[in-house]
Amino acid sequence: MKKLGLIVLVAGIILMAGCAGDDPVGPGDLPTVTGLEVLATSSGRTVNLSWNAVTGTTIDGYEIYFKSNGDGSWVALDTETGTTYSHTADNSGTYSVRAYEGTDFSENYSNVETTMPTVISDSYTIWDNHAPDIEHSGFIFGATSGTTGRALDTGFDQDIYCYDGDWSESPCGFYSGDHAPFGNGSHTDMIASSGSTYGYPSGSQWWQTGYILAGDVIFCELSNGHYVKVFVSSVPQHATQPLSHGIIFYYDYQPINGLYLFTTDSTP
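The structure assignment produced for this chain is given below.
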């Protein structure tokens, strides 16, 4: 019995060694792609990518990956034989690239590049023209924080301001910073989110004055070429002036000039 067991053991070792030699080369042997970047030519919904070519080995091409909203697992978008790629995106996210040859891939994903907006977590309030003079009605969208001020002050270069436009739907709304009667500010075009599309401004009906309701999501094109996404929390009545109403909001800022991609979130 001992002799039979030894024969079976030796045979098993020989069989395993033979099978190991037949295994295909697994993914992860190719060099890691470097130098991935989002190009300054990116605009609208088009994200232009480039990266450094893999050298010193033969490859079939590159696979481009995307994480929608920057979350979850990598999803393969496409393959490319060159070192550039353009992605028409429905929302912001993160990108990475791997080289491939057959079933073999880069040992690691490349560096990660992002189109995610800067989330401004502070809440801001601006008041309409019926509010007491001390209240701030104008607003400047900064890349990391916002600034409120009085739209009637000629030295305050607001992007938008709050005003009673005599709408039946709401007691107040947003006016472009350069629109009368307080037209000393910067020009801002605005458009409300369409249906359930929150990742980018869809449609063509941009406006410079419009009423605002609680829960609105408004995209703004600023005069500096950047875009912001405004989340309206509420439209409260002023505590001491019943005729006056304000707009409380948060916003996200897209740091890539000309790109208007944001997350699919409808609330901050």
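Interim note for the steering committee: Residues 1-26 have pLDDT under 50 and may be disordered. Residues 37-114 form a domain with the Immunoglobulin-like fold (CATH 2.60.40.10).
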